[in-house]
Amino acid sequence: MGSRSNLLLPEPVPNRRSTPSSITKCSRYFTRLLRFNQMDFEFAVWQMVYLFTAPQKVFKNSVYRKQTKNQYARDDPAFLVILAAGIILSAAGLSIVLHLNFFSFIKFVFWLVMVDCILIGAIVATLAWIFTNKFLKKDALSSEDVEWGYAFDVHLNAFFPPLIILHLVQLLFFSYFISQDWFLARLFGNTLWLVAVIYYCYITYLGYRSLPYLKDTKFILYALVPAFLVYLVSILAGVNIMRMIMNFYEYRVN
């Protein structure tokens, strides 16, 4: 990682063209999904590293992109491609733990990638897009709106750390520790869940806070209050959240 980790993440060659329509942006973005030779995978990997170590740097690059390309949203789908690959790899590990056959594994991958990540992500992005533009703009009459693509980017950024925590970290401990009926197992597993929720909310907050025309973005962090309550109640009531998640995964593919 060397000296590069101390610098702002580099962007592809600047381009100061006029802003295309949202439909044009989305069409261009998804058209590039199969053009791997045009994707900057190294840049996407660095973004993923920074989402754990210094997530604010990822959104500083979104501001830089606005200055050079006149849009906050990514125009390179490399991050989404690597994220999908990570989901598939984690699904393979979880399938071993859950003893899924090949066809159940394929169904599991479909649920995780197409439903949990993309479909639900699109719904969350749409709701956030509507809410921020309607209630969080400093100037309601301003022509500058939150881009839908940027709202989807914020979701993808926020989705990555929970993916690592809930699918990879817990995978190392689930069979022999987290799945047990011990208090420490329940405490550890439920704490992993809470950390994942905190990451998602905090990165989402950073994403919208970086937009200079939004106000009161701290309200996003209020979602942590019910999360803490669920965590405390689950510990006191003897509920193993991670085991419930794994049971849910197994239920919907069988």
Please, could you describe this protein's structure?
Residues 1-21 are annotated as: Disordered. The protein is mainly α and 254 residues long. The protein is built from 9 helices and no strands. It has helices at 22-31, 41-53, 55-69, 78-98, 102-135, 148-178, 183-209, 224-237, 241-253. The longest helix is centred in the middle third of the chain and has 34 residues, at 102-135. The radius of gyration is 19 Å and the shape is globular.
The main pleated sheet reads as:
none
Q: Note the overall shape.
A: globular
Distance between the termini: 43 Å
- Hey, roughly how much beta strand do the residues contain? under 5%
Percent of residues in helices comes to over 70%
Number of domains: 1
Given the helix and strand composition, which structural class is it? mainly alpha
Rg estimate, integer Å:
19 Å
Low-pLDDT residue spans: 1-7, 12-18
Give the SSE order as H and E letters: HHHHHHHHH
Annotation field: number of helices? 9
The whole-number mean of residue pLDDT values reads 88
Q: What's the β-strand tally?
A: 0
Subcellular location: Membrane
Organism: Aceria tosichella (wheat curl mite)
Membrane topology: Multi-pass membrane protein
Main location: membrane
Element layout with pairings:
Elements: H1 22-31, H2 41-53, H3 55-69, H4 78-98, H5 102-135, H6 148-178, H7 183-209, H8 224-237, H9 241-253
Helix pairs in contact: 2-3, 4-5, 4-6, 5-6, 6-7, 7-8
Subcellular location: Membrane
InterPro entries: UNC-50
Keywords: Membrane, Transmembrane, Transmembrane helix
